[in-house]
Specification:
Blueprint: H1 3-29, H2 36-43, H3 47-53, H4 57-80, H5 87-104, H6 108-116, H7 122-147, H8 156-172, H9 174-181, H10 185-207, H11 215-218
Length: 219
């Protein structure tokens, strides 16, 4: 093996060690409570070396969250693009994938929200680019199922709002939900496991219920 190749492999290995350490600490302690010094110690390197590879904690956090999001989207895309499964089966798999992923990456929802609000940043544009094909394909399948009479017609906005609200909101509102319901961390995660079964049932009920327009709204 050439000397240059050894250097490249060593640098790649060091970068992965730093990202693995940062992901662990961000997940355990949150972004604000994690210091770059903590990450360096967890990775077994000095602070100067960490700063050499990643200019700031914010830059490192962005990279990790984006990589995690990309990995998640690739995971659910396998289910969404599977033509052999019905829309109901796809919803079950997508809900389970969402909840499993967010349980392992609790900081991701707020990261995404912070990135896409206001003027979209470069990372927000990348997030949209990653999710767009999967989102479009899923919505197309919903519309086709509605035309075929397999499910009740539903506006894409309401479909996405229901899917996102039922799966993601509990993680975004976790502090409030736990305080209001006096729920421990262990109980919260148990509830999330339960929602992997319940949310698909609720979504199927929504998709099987025709929405009628009130008489006063037709005028």
């Amino acid at each position: 093996m050439s000397k240059a190749k050894k250097i490249v492999e060593k640098e790649a290995s060091t970068e992965e060690k730093i990202k693995a350490a940062a992901k662990k600490l961000f997940t355990q302690k949150g972004f604000a409570a994690t210091r770059t010094r903590d990450i360096a110690e967890e990775a077994g390197i000095n602070l100067a070396l960490l700063n050499y590879y990643f200019r700031s904690k914010e830059k490192l956090y962005d990279i990790i969250m984006l990589e995690n999001f990309r990995q998640f989207i690739q995971g659910i895309s396998v289910n969404v693009f599977d033509e052999k499964t019905s829309i109901e089966e796809k919803l079950e798999k997508v809900v389970i994938a969402y909840i499993d992923f967010l349980s392992a990456n609790p900081n991701l929802p707020l990261f995404v929200l912070n990135e896409i609000k206001g003027n979209p940043s470069r990372i927000a544009a990348q997030i949209n680019e990653e999710v767009s094909p999967t989102r479009s394909h899923l919505l197309q399948q919903v519309q086709e199922a509605a035309k075929a009479g397999k499910i009740a017609p539903i506006d894409p906005f309401h479909f996405i709002a229901n899917l996102v609200g039922l799966t993601i909101f509990p993680f975004i509102g976790r502090p409030i939900l736990q305080r209001v319901t006096n729920t421990t961390d262990e109980q919260f995660l148990a509830h999330m496991e339960e929602r992997k079964r319940l949310v698909p049932i609720w979504l199927k009920a929504i998709l099987s219920t025709p929405i009628t327009t009130p008489a006063h709204a037709k005028k």
